[in-house]
Amino acid sequence: MATPFPKDWEDAADYARRVFPKPGHAFVDPHMALLEAATGDRAALGRRLTALDELVAKGAIGAGAIVPAIGRAALAFAEGDYAGCVHILEPMTVDFARIGGSNAQREVIEDTLLVALMRAGEVQKARALLDRRLHRRPSPRDTRWLTGLAA
Predict the structure, then answer these.
(1) Pairwise CA distance, residues 13 & 39, whole Å
(2) Sign (positive/negative) of CA torsion 65, 71, 72, 76?
(3) 19-32: per-residue pLDDT in tens?
(4) Most buried of 1, 126, 136, 142 (most Cβ within 10 A)?
(5) DSSP label at 106?
(6) What is the pLDDT of residue 4?
(7) Which pLDDT does position 10 carry in this prediction?
(8) Hey, how many other C-beta atoms are within 10 angstroms of the C-beta on 107?
(9) Within the chain, which residues score under 50 in pLDDT?
(10) Helix H or strand E segment including 48
């Protein structure tokens, strides 16, 4: 599948695959899955998800099932299945911190859920998530999104 993204995205994905060739890192794998889904590399994402499922089954990835779940949600999002993305991510929001990194680094996962909620027509849930975020920290973008949902 051809990617609608500029060559820079492909270059970033190629670089990341060279630097992180094997699944098994709870912070890296969700980001690799996002890259693979966004650039249309379904085969690489499928291999990653299979390997992650095996690692989870063996108890070899401390973060657990959230890691492959983010990959599946990214794939659903990339394919336009926003309700499917929400179905995967929404019950796991309390587990986002398990992948590590800072709140800002993990916010890309929450952003994926938020945009999926908006695109799936889940306005009430999107408003609630935006409200929680805005009570946690200011954000001009989140304020614009919340204002847009009110219209």
Answers:
(1) 8
(2) positive
(3) 998 999 999 999 99
(4) 126
(5) H
(6) 53
(7) 84
(8) 16
(9) 1-3
(10) helix 42-58
Chain centroid to CA 69: how far? 9
The values of phi and psi at residue 62, to 5°, are: -55, -30
SS3 37: helix
Entry field: residues in the chain? 151
Tokens (6 digits) for 113: 């859920």
pLDDT at 5: 57
Query: What pTM does this model have?
Result: 0.89
The encoded tokens of residue 62 equal: 């401390």
Cβ neighbourhood burial of 149 (10 Å; 0-12, 13-18, 19+): middle
pLDDT on residue 151: 67
The strand ranges marked E within 25-145 are none
CB pairs under 8 A, 24+ apart, for 103-107? 105/27
Structure tokens at 87: 């179905």
For the record, the structure tokens of 30 come out as: 């969700």
pLDDT at 7: 79
Report the amino acid identity of residue 97. A
* Of the candidates 44, 41, 39, 45, the residue with the CA atom closest to the CA atom of residue 5: 39
